Amino acid sequence: MDSSYGQASIESLKQKASEAEKRGNHKEALNIYSDALRVATRSKLNNIEIANLHCWRSKAYHNLGKYTKSIEEATECIKQCPKWAMGYYREGMAQKMLKKFVNALQCFIKSIEVSQQTDKKTSYQAYFYAEIISIVCKIEDLEESIDVDKMVQKPESDKLKEAILQQLSTTQNWNGVSYVIIGNITGTDFELAGLFSKCCCRKINVCDLLKNTSTKQKKDWGLKLAIELLKNGALLDNFESEMQQNRIHYGIQISLETVKVDFLKYLLSTSSSSQRNSVDIKGDTGLHFIVKSKDILSTTLGDTLLRLLVNHECEVNIKDRSGKISIEYVKNTDTAYSVLLPKSDKTVIFPEKLKTTESKNIDESAPVPSSTVGKEVIFNTCRKCRALFVKCKSTIIRDTANTFTELIKLCKIENHNSEKHTEIVDKCITLISDSIEQTDSCSLEILRALCSLPNKLYRRIIEDLVKQRKWLQLNRIVNEHWKESNEYCFADFAKNIAVDSVITHLTKKDVPQEIIFEIVSMLIHNGCILHNGTKSLSFSIKRITRKNQESIMRRKICELSIMKPSLMSTQTTCLFCQVF
Q1: How far, in Å, CA of 531 to CA of 548, rounded?
Q2: What is the pLDDT of residues 229-271, one digit of tens each?
């Protein structure tokens, strides 16, 4: 040991150790903390100072990858000062690295409990909550081993929620941010999922999210999260400098990569006119970018993007560096041509400016359909259908039954085969699904009206309800359809649903046992997963039933599984019964 260390104060040694850590020399830092601990022990310092040094040694071991040693030091820290939250936190961090997630959660929960009783520091608690979220957002089926909902107090103050979000975003844990803002796309469905959906996000920069998520993550949840964050006040500052392109061009690029246009729609609807019509480093607007790439323009997605930009008032008359407007890069026989025509000139006849010698890329000899020459182009935009849909959006809450009737009529129109009408139908189904999701009950009149929808559209409503875990509503519309048609038209929609997770979810919502069994019965009839999770199912049923009713519930589900041979193994004994 360097003799100078023995003469130095504890604070001086800690400062030197901190400097060693910043240089990445964790072994040196460990040795200095060890020297400081020996000095503190000889000096008979109080337990708090000794506990603090054990905590720093625990961190040093953690940085060296020696997690068992880190736990030992954290345990000694807790022994010296059980009312200090950081000892439990350091143990939890080491347990997490050893993939002992239940132990880690218990440590982080204890950290919160101790902090709430002692220092009450929001910054510390934000660290602890963030670590809990980082585990539950990735690991499935934790509810069988630990009940986080009962053990940890949900953060209530807006200040604490903002601090947690800031900690998650600072550590680039966007999966965790998604978990608390949107809900559990992955991970275990605890009450923390979606709890921060209305939380102010003013300290989060969405550019960090976009730069630090993969294309798959953006497609699965990243773009949806970006929209929700922006709606809740997140920043989109310095977009051009951080993303190296303007927002509309970036939105087009992301749409092409993910085949999703929602984020671009949001950018267009919230951007100023100058932002929508800004040019990239090549001098191209978003419209030029699309029409100059024939690979993009020839696809359905390219056509959709083009229409999206025009519908959001991106100017078609802006020239690029070659002095050409976007329409000059397409033939008059292309679908894009009619989209790019200026509003004041909706005819197929070429504008005079396109007949100049500069328009070398335009094939003026291309045949023009005789039915449209010199006449206004007739665009099948389903204006009446669109107007009716807009009206339905405004009346869906106060006059639900009549609005549903109108929406269903729109969906059943067969002689409107335009792309526009298909888009309107998609919006109708989404509006219907959202409305059903937001209420625990639908009138019989509405349910019967829904049954008149084509099976393809009815199935989409079912899939939306499954995605949002709206089991009560799902049960009603599936059973009502069966009553009307007297057959299971959607017999495989539940093939990816694990019945034990449904039971657990419904139990948390305090749904009566009889209703839970009815829902489970419906899912089993429609092919849900039973044999892959029998032990989990056993556990779930033990949680929700009183002792004298457990055997009844088991027997009922066993009978249902026998009625559905696809849920049975090749053995003669019911798999569900084998676990008891």
Answers
A1: 25
A2: 999 999 887 888 888 889 999 999 999 999 999 999 999 999 9
Tell me which residue of 137, 76, 68, 73 sits closest to 103, measured CA to CA.
68
Q: What angle do CA 406, 437, 270 make, to 5 degrees?
A: 80
Contacts of 72 (CB under 8 A, 6+ apart): none
Cα atoms in the 13 Å half-sphere on the side-chain side of 80: 22
Based on its alpha-carbon atoms, the radius of gyration of the chain, rounded to whole angstroms, reads 31
Q: Which of 39-43, 374-378, 552-556 has the highest mean pLDDT?
A: 39-43
Cβ-contact 541, 503 below 8 angstroms: yes
* Short-list 27, 72, 30, 76, CA closest to 51: 76
pLDDT at 450: 81
CA 186 to chain centre: 9
DSSP 8-state assignment for residue 188: -
Helix axes 400-412, 383-395, angle to 10 degrees: 160
Q: What is the distance, to the nearest Å, from the Cα of residue 131 to the centroid of all Cα atoms in its chain?
A: 19
Residue 441: how many other CB atoms lie within 10 Å: 10
**Cα distance from N-terminal residue to C-terminal residue, the chain:** 62
SS3 call for 573:
coil
How much is the mean pLDDT over the chain?
Answer: 80
In sequence order, the 6+-apart residues with CB closer than 8 A to the CB of 244 are: none
The CA distance from 152 to 87, in Å, is: 18
- Tell me, yes or no, if the pTM score tops 0.70: no
